[in-house]
Automatic annotation (TrEMBL):
<feature type="region of interest" description="Disordered">
    <location>
        <begin position="1"/>
        <end position="29"/>
    </location>
</feature>
<keyword id="KW-1133">Transmembrane helix</keyword>
<keyword id="KW-0812">Transmembrane</keyword>
<feature type="transmembrane region" description="Helical">
    <location>
        <begin position="92"/>
        <end position="111"/>
    </location>
</feature>
<feature type="transmembrane region" description="Helical">
    <location>
        <begin position="123"/>
        <end position="142"/>
    </location>
</feature>
<keyword id="KW-0645">Protease</keyword>
<feature type="transmembrane region" description="Helical">
    <location>
        <begin position="255"/>
        <end position="276"/>
    </location>
</feature>
<keyword id="KW-0472">Membrane</keyword>
<keyword id="KW-0378">Hydrolase</keyword>
<dbReference type="GO" id="GO:0006508">
    <property type="term" value="P:proteolysis"/>
</dbReference>
<dbReference type="GO" id="GO:0008233">
    <property type="term" value="F:peptidase activity"/>
</dbReference>
<protein>
    <submittedName>
        <fullName>Vacuolar membrane protease</fullName>
    </submittedName>
</protein>
Length: 283
């Protein structure tokens, strides 16, 4: 055997050995998904398991673990806040400067217009009160608290009775002298005049009901972004896959509401929360 042939055999041997090693390593690797879709399915299954495990994690059953995660979340949020502040120091300085200037201007205005400021303060408290009642009616606080029946409805009724008793609309509906006739001059009373009298209270109450609908909306949105399963969403997807002619009336209404929320977002929630809630409360 010539020297050249021996060298060629030596070169071939490492190649064969390397192939065997690569083959063994390939066998030792875990099974990988064949395509992207199967990888998505595996990810969804893992997320679903994690979500199911998270549902059993409550403060009463696992107080130490919940407090631990809560503390870690607070620390992480604090670090993120510090980083954001350091990265946006110039913008924050501008905002603080404008805020200080605005407060100084307001302070000057308050000193020069004391009576107007008091009136503004009372108005903010009054309308904030109706917003809070609207929120309470929307979320219920677990008590079935319907503030339209308990507060706004009687307020509108009281305004209507006072209007017909006085024969005019010259009376206040808030303050110490509320619902007291100020004039004996008779005037025409109709539903439009009464509506204008209670319009702002009704509007801010309706605004409160829509604001009360937002927290569950954002919670559901965050859950969807996190990849957790939603039975209601799965249900609407099933309905959407059904042909229109085979949908029941209830399913058609659900599809209509789904499209309304999807297309109009917050304004759709505002509309649906402000209008049906009084009717629901009366029922």
């Amino acid at each position: 055997m010539s020297t050249q042939q021996r060298n060629q055999e030596k070169k071939k041997k490492p190649t064969t050995t390397q192939n065997e090693v690569n083959h063994k390593q390939t066998k030792e690797l875990p099974h990988l998904p064949e395509n992207i879709e199967s990888m998505k399915i595996l990810t969804k299954k893992s997320t679903s398991k994690l979500t199911k495990g998270g549902k059993s994690l409550t403060l009463t059953k696992n107080p130490i673990k919940v407090l631990k995660y809560f503390s870690l979340y607070l620390v992480d949020s604090l670090i993120t806040l510090i980083i954001n502040i350091s990265n946006n120091a110039f913008k924050i300085s501008l905002i603080l400067g404008f805020s200080a200037t605005f407060i100084a201007v307001l302070n000057t205005f308050f000193l020069e217009n004391g009576s107007k400021v008091d009136e503004l303060k009372h108005s903010l408290i009054w309308f904030g009160y109706w917003i809070a009642l609207g929120v309470a009616s929307s979320i219920g606080l677990g008590t079935g608290l319907h503030t339209f029946v308990l507060f706004l409805g009687p307020h509108i009724a009281h305004t209507t009775i006072t209007a017909y008793t006085c024969g005019n609309m010259d009376f206040d509906i808030r303050g110490e002298e509320s619902f007291e006739c100020k004039s004996t001059i008779q005037s025409d009373i109709n539903i439009w005049i009464i509506f204008v009298k209670v319009a702002w209270e009704s509007f801010f109450w309706g605004l409160g009901t829509s604001l009360g609908e937002l927290p569950p909306y954002f919670v559901a949105r965050a859950a969807a972004a996190a990849g957790s399963d939603d039975e209601d969403f799965d249900s609407i997807e099933k309905i959407l896959s059904t042909p229109k002619e085979k949908r029941s009336f209830n399913e058609s209404v659900q599809v209509y509401m789904y499209n309304l929320m999807h297309n109009f977002g917050f304004f759709g929630i505002l509309l649906c929360a402000s209008i049906p809630n009084p009717l629901f409360d009366l029922a």
